[in-house]
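Follow-up to my post from last week.
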Amino acid sequence: MYQGSCLCGAVRYQADELGPAVFCHCQRCRKASGSAFASNALVPSDKFRFVEGEDALATFSTPQGVHRVFCGRCGSPLISRRDAMPEAVRLRLGTLDTPIDVRPQAHIFVGSKAEWFDIHDHLPQYAERP
Ligand SMILES: [Zn+2]
Ligand SMILES: [Zn+2]
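User reply:
Got it. Predicted complex:
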C-alpha cells in the first residue's frame, strides 16, 4: 500500500496499487504544477482513498469534465478525475510519501512542452497521447 499527503499535511491518502505512469508536458499540467511537467500515475478509483483531511480538499473543474483535486490550504495538486474515465484517478506522484517501484514510461504532450526544458532520457516521447 502506498501513502501520500499534501505539503501542509492536512490531506492524507492511500493507494493500493499504481498503474502506468507518465510525464505530462501539457500546458494544463504545467500550470497546475507550476513546473515543466507533471508526473502522474493511473490508479483504479476503487484502489484510491483519502484517509484524512477530505474537508480541506478543493476541486477545479473544467467544462471538459476534468476535475483537478488539490489541498485548499497549501495548494498541493493530488489527483485528477475525468467524467469520461470514472474507473481511474490520476495521482500526482510527487505527493507520495512511500517509495514506489513504478517508473514513468513515457513523455506525453511533448508537442506543447516548455521550450526551456530539454528531455534528456530515452523514454518514448509523444506529441500528445500515445
Ligand atoms: Zn495541504
Ligand atoms: Zn497534462
